[in-house]
Amino acid sequence: MSGAEALLPAQRPLAWREYALLVAGLLLAAGPHVLRAPGWLIALTVFLYAWRGLGAWNRSLLPSRWMLVAIVLLGLAGVWLQYRAIFGRTPGMMLLLLFSGLKLLESRDQRDAAAVVFLTWFLAITSFLYSQSIPTALGMAAAVAVSVAALVTCAAPRRAPRANLRTAWVLLGQAVPAALVLFLLFPRVHGPLWGLPQDAYTGITGLSDSMAPGNLSQLTLSDAIAFRVDFKGEAPRRRALYWRGPVMWDFDGRTWRLGNPRIVDLVPPATGTRVAYSVLLEPHNRNWLFALELPASLPAQARYLDDGQLVSLTPVRARISYDVESAIESVPDPSEARQTLERARRLPPGFNPRAMKLAEGWRAASATDAEVLGRAIDFFRRERLQYTTEPPLLGRDSVDEFLYDTRQGFCEHFSSAFVFLMRAAGVPARVVTGYQGGDMNPVDGKFTVRQSDAHAWGEVFIAGRGWIRVDPTVLSVPLRLDAGLAAVPAGSALPLLMRPELEWLRGLRYNWEALTHKWNLLVLGYNPERQRELLSFLGMKDADWLELASTLLAVLGAFILGLFAWMLRGMARPDPVQGAWIRFCGKLAAKGVARSPHEGPRDYSERAARSLPAAGEPIRTIAGLYITLRYGRHAAKDEVLELRRRVKDLEFG
Amino acid sequence: MALQAELKNWFYGPEAPRSGQGGGEIVLGHRRVYIVPSRLGLFFAGALGILLVGSINYALSLGFALTFLLAGLGIAAMVQTTRNLARLSVRAGRSDAVFAGDTAHFRLSLANAGEFDRPEILVRHLGSGAQRTLDVAIAASAEAVLPVPAPRRGWLPLGRVMLETRFPVGLFRAWSYVELDSRCLVYPRPVASALPAPAPSAQAGGARAHAQGSDDFSGLRAHQPADSPRHVAWKSVARSDTQHARGDAMLTKQFAGDAIAELWLSLSDLPPSLGLEQRLSRLAGWVLAAERAGALYGLRLPGSEIAPGRGEAHRAACLEALALHESS
Q1: CB of A9 within 8 Å of any CB in chain B?
Q2: Which of A206, B1, B109, B132 suits A348 as a labelling partner, its CA being 20 to 30 A distant?
Q3: Helix (H) or strand (E) holding A274
Q4: Are the beta carbons of A436 and A414 closer than 8 angstroms?
């Protein structure tokens, strides 16, 4: 009847329903952080959430200000002890998690609830720093939906919960078209806007700028995708798929490191089979781009180094896509600078005496570098060294130990030993790291190259022929080329899905990865370049941001107007019942019986019927109809029509 | 003056149309619904800014998606908040007369012709700050009773009323002003004092009322300790706890030995030194007392006269005359 208490929604205390929605949103948004947060922090946060739940039941259990301050200090100290930092990506996120619990705990009214909802959104975006996969996206969409439901419930706590939920879904449904327009047309720029914290890109896997025994084999235990390839035309045979990455020049006895290659113009090889393909490269926080040996074209924004690497001008920190062309099995350029060859013969003195002796023996027995190479190849074929993903640890003379003692190794052992032997025999050689092989996904026909395909091989320079690829792993274990890691003897550590017995699971994975590829390409890969392509497709070539912004505003403006018109549809016309009544009042006023403002329809019609007795009956009927239609629950269409007809026919005799 | 009106129009929007003779009802056209982000909405915009910068900095595609989804939510919320008021019809109901110093209760009825409910509509009387929150269901109406202080006698106009809503998410505040042609009659604040002696009635042909007997009631006077308890106007004592006639409530019935006597309540009976308002207040007190005692009373004001009578309607007519008496 008379309205409720005049408390603004913002001042109303939180009820258990709002609390439940807020916590559900927080749990959904914070869920993935469980993988990263230390146990004590998870326990503390969940404890804070639960404490607020107790408070919803009995307010006297809520903590005092001082206790909150104590918890804040404890949490800060804990994060400091854990990470030795308060700022930075991971500690910052952990603090955000902690504050979500604290803010919830001190939430008393609806205004605080809004702050908790904002925190939910911040938690959601920090999850994206780690994963932007489809499941993460779905989880965060659920978190946003629940948080919006919480906002609506807070804005109208007395309304039926189901009606509030429906309002939340309608709001989100209406938000989607606008979001899509903004996503496509909002002027995109290349980040970052300023320097990022030091730990911004930790946890990204990929090849590194050095190669020591054991670090590649660690990488191969990862099932993560390195990049995906879409060949235009037929894919080359698997054994030709050498994806060239960083080239290692300098050896210190244990670790191989990058040289300092110069940027040169790419001279496309004249020979070999040309293949064109596009690569969707996962971020690895390095400049390397991967292409089949040897690259014959340069992607946009890429440079070519004189040792055959493709590099990007900036580290690859977001998934990027590039088109490139390669000439496989081509004849290399036979020329090379003298200094470069000098560098390719350098070895640290005093390491691996047994291998040195072996190589010197080859040198003495051979007339040419090619002959030395032939002996080396024979050596690797004959020796039957074992290929394993779990190589034994090696000591100071790693090459000697591998060749003569343990005789088990992974590709980095093979390539390191080979290049060492060649250099010891005076033949210029270098280690090339990269990936070998890849899986074709039968669902979408694209190739997937994983971290487990990481590989290292050697290159030797033979006068008159140039740099020649020699893969010592394949010489010892010929199966490696066709079977990839499956060439590893049974029982060794392998990524779960590489195991041959899980065929059905692989099928499932192919489907999932095909979907993920589309997602990566279309959603995650939408960047300033893709936006430019889309705009030129839409007929806006070289649109600057001003043009883009005005288009965006125009589209959004039209959307708002359309939405508004749609939401008020059917209401623009005056109410037919009210229209008929106004006409009725006008007719009576013309007869001298004007309605006074405070007169209700019943009193007025009674007075009118008494002063105009000739029309008394119709006047009472009309008033009765009007009262039924206006104040009754339902308005039947034929009754409305009858009212209008009767008003029209009203005569005063 | 004209400039002031212009400014008012510019600030508040065009003058809210008064309810016409026919309807007494205002329908809020969507052009009369104003909307701005609420404080929460400004925080929301700030949060979106942070999310956007984060997305750009870390090149987070899903960060962009989240930011833009929330921006879309803001847009949808803006439209829905406006809709919550748009085409709502407001009408004023009857408000019962009150005495000056009391609180007038204005009834405001909000009718919703839409196919959606309109929750959380705040109705605020700008003059007094009185406010009520209403939920208007689908195709239904809801009524708010606004308590407005009535300090002075005369007509008390309702004045400007603001309707405000922040539904559905509180990010926007939509409001509209209505100025309904609704007013409440305010009687003078009654002051109790001894009733004047009954005057000889014209019809009674100059009957004497001076001889006091106990046959016919002729009026009331203030109770004196010597009066017989049988003559105390107990009915009036019983009612005297009503707020309008506090004070020396014990009255003694005076009885005229004569036939019918009429009580004339006249402004000129009261000394002008009291001031007009005080005299009107005393008259109002007399009217109440006379009605309570069941006397036949008439009212004489300069320029108008109400013939003696009794009953609710008569009482109301007398009080209205007092309320609307022009202070010349």
Answers
A1: yes
A2: A206
A3: strand A273-281
A4: no
**Residues 74-133, chain B: which have Cβ within 8 Å of A?**
75-80, 82-83, 86-87, 89, 92-94, 111, 113-115, 117, 119-120, 122-123, 130-133
Chain B positions touching A594 (Cβ under 8 A) are 21
Q: Which of A33, A112, A230, A411 is catalytic?
A: A411
Mutate to test the interface with A, among B43, B52, B57, B73 (most CBs of A within 10 A): B73
Q: From the CA of A53, how many Å to the nearest CA of chain B?
A: 23
Contacts for A636-640 with beta carbons within 8 Å, 24 or more apart? A640/A576, A640/A577, A640/A580
Q: How far is CA B315 from CA B254, B263, B311, in A?
A: 21, 13, 6
| β partners of residue B91 | B25, B109
Distances (CA, A) of A501 to A451, A494, A496, A498, A506: 21, 12, 10, 9, 10
> In this structure, what token pair is assigned to residue B21?
């003779």
Strand B183-187 relative to strand B98-99: parallel, antiparallel, unpaired?
parallel
H or E element at residue B186: strand B183-187
CA atoms of B250 and B222, how far apart (whole Å): 6
Q: Give mean pLDDT in consecutive 10-residue pieces for chain A, a chain of 653 residues.
A: 45 79 93 86 90 78 83 88 80 88 84 90 91 91 95 89 93 94 87 55 67 72 82 85 90 85 85 89 86 87 87 83 88 83 88 90 90 90 80 82 86 90 92 87 83 88 88 80 59 56 73 80 80 83 81 91 81 68 85 81 88 86 85 72 85 75
Q: Which residues contact B48 (CB under 8 A, 6 or more apart)?
A: B67, B70, B71, B74
How many whole angstroms separate alpha carbon A249 and alpha carbon A344?
A: 7
Which residues have C-beta within 8 Å of that of residue A459, sequence separation ≥ 6?
A247, A429, A430, A431, A432, A467, A468, A469, A470
Q: Which of A33, A284, A413, A455 is catalytic?
A: A455
Instruction: State yes or no: ipTM above 0.85.
Output: no
Q: Which residues of chain B make contact with A189, given a CB cutoff of 8 A?
A: 56
